[in-house]
Queue: 2 jobs
Job 1
Amino acid sequence: MAEVTLKGIEKTYPNGFKAVHGVDLNIREGEFMVFVGPSGCAKSTTLRMIAGLEDISEGDVYIGDRRVNDLPPKDRGISMVFQNYALYPHMSVYENMAFGLKQQKLAKAEVEQRIAEAAKTLDIEHLLKNKPGEMSGGQRQRVALGRAMVRKPDVFLFDEPLSNLDAKLRVSTRVSIAQLHNDLKAEGQNATMIYVTHDQVEAMTLGDRICVLNQGQIMQVDTPMNLYQYPANKFVAGFIGSPAMNIIKVRIDDIDGVMNVIAESGHRWELPKQKQGLARQRTGEWVWFGVRPEHIQLASDFTSPCEVNTQRHKIDVVESMGNELYLYFQLGGDRMISRIPFDADRLVSGGDSALLKFRVSQCHLFDLDTEETLGQEPVGLKRP
């Protein structure tokens, strides 16, 4: 297997539209890297430039120590799994998996061995004689994975491979992909995988590291935990996490020697000790204040409404997720959401007034103009 290096990659179309803006990225050998971002952020375009399916306007792509800009896809040592499976409908599963190997003129015994190994890993041994039309979407996607596996590529590329599957199949196939990566590593093959998705659950559960893209630029590259805990900017903070982080505009004020943030609605929160010094340097300034839904909880029955960072709000809508509830409420002109565990003894309904406790020890502050995060990382997690 091999590492993949992007150096100043750009993509400009004939009409002048620039889709990718100078992307620099090193994907380590054996790493599972996920490209994630909203629709139109150029994650698939970047993947297709690595694959050789899109021309590179500027910059260089290296797979291992080879510059591959001018190599056709078949010579890059990659295998690609597409969203629409791209299986030959008139061929059996075995024939689909064998097709590329026969083009390489491998011996029949080698072809049979590779297919048998891949089929066993993906639990599709019983499907080898079937044709794609006789199988479910999840089975067809596993066949597409098997076809990629048997080529024993340097790099696996996945372009939103699960987006056509229903929720249950997405979960099971996602587990199959993760298991494939682990199995290959256990066998001594450092399987480098690059995976494109718009689904952050896939990104957070699959990736060793995640590259968050927006408008053709890298916003942040980090481990899933660090992206969640230490977003580099307001975009990453709002994109990573489900439900999304609550982010509102606030002013920093000194109240009796303690730094607070005050929303346009008049609601205020006392900042935690670790942010007091930073906030004091910006007294009177407007910033973005972020708090995740799970850090807004129902206050204890014994909590005083006057307790710091505790506020009473009218709950507009309650969404039940089975094991947890999403509580929607208004804070001035901003819609906020709280994520709480389901508790049969403390049910909340739309229209209720609820006392909510904001855990601002977990809050985030972002510059109003640059939208970059303010302050140092909390003590605890370490970057790789």
Job 2
Amino acid sequence: MSDPAHGITTGAVARRLGVSPTTVRSWDQRYGIGPAVRADGRHRRWSPADIAMLDEMCRLTASGVPPAEAARAARQARPPAGPTVPGATRDAPPAGPGATPETAPSPAGVPPGRTRRAGPGSGLPLGGDVRQEARGLARAAVRLDGPAMEGLLQEALAEHGLVTAWQEIMVPTLHAVGRKWESSGDRYVEVEHLLSWHVSTALRRAAVTGPATASPAAPVVLACVPGEQHTLPLEALAAGLAERGLPTRMFGAAVPAEALDAAVRRSGPAAVALWSQARSTANHALARHVAGTAFGVRGARTVPLVLLAGPGWLGRPPAPGTVRPTGLREAIGVISRLYGEPAGSAEY
């Protein structure tokens, strides 16, 4: 058990900050973000000043600052502290402001000029060509930092608009979490769940804050096909349509065929967006049925346009009465034209 007077252990610090102990140790090894004092020269004991430095490191990385730059800024912000543990030794001064991971002191067993790869929890496989906001969101997700994710998502929507925020920030991060989960033996499920919840919350908030959608016009029905649980892309479409003041009816995940048929007949939609994530859920017969469902008074009956949304529909040409948009922007444009709006009338 840690003695508060002598600092706390790495595990206790990690729990307090919401990161893994491996992440804390890798920051120490790679960037010199370690305690100023170690008991017996070996065991890490983190003082309040050290913890404040780590907290600043978390804040900066969550905002999208690369770890090496965040570490330099966090080290500079740490006030000097003297030894507080009997027999403790003060660490060698960390690398200076101009140092990089290549010039920082090497961890044991790592040749000079090379760095040890960060351990589990250090990040997500985003690749090199992504926005800094996506990197910040990924770091916050791995740390299970809900408040940081909420703030970053709100900022992304406000600065870039819905379509760009969805396609270039939210989607790459969600895909990276999925790849991490697939490659780590079912770990990081909690990261995926928390990130998805915050993305959903941000999208629904964007839909609610859009223009008023009370309208006598025919709505757009949004539904996942039977067996399909992925609703986030439809939530993004609902938010995009709400930005334009277009009426929607969201029915969510895995809508049974009978329920979908009843919803279409009762609401008389101008369009129906059917999401399928995988070919195993793409029900082409159901899509053709919806596209042929007529409603309205005799002599003026109409049918909805069916949008085959999602990668599950790939592999077959769209049937009559259906279209297959290539992404969120195109889907919003296709639906907007049904209501007499030019596809480019909103800024995205």
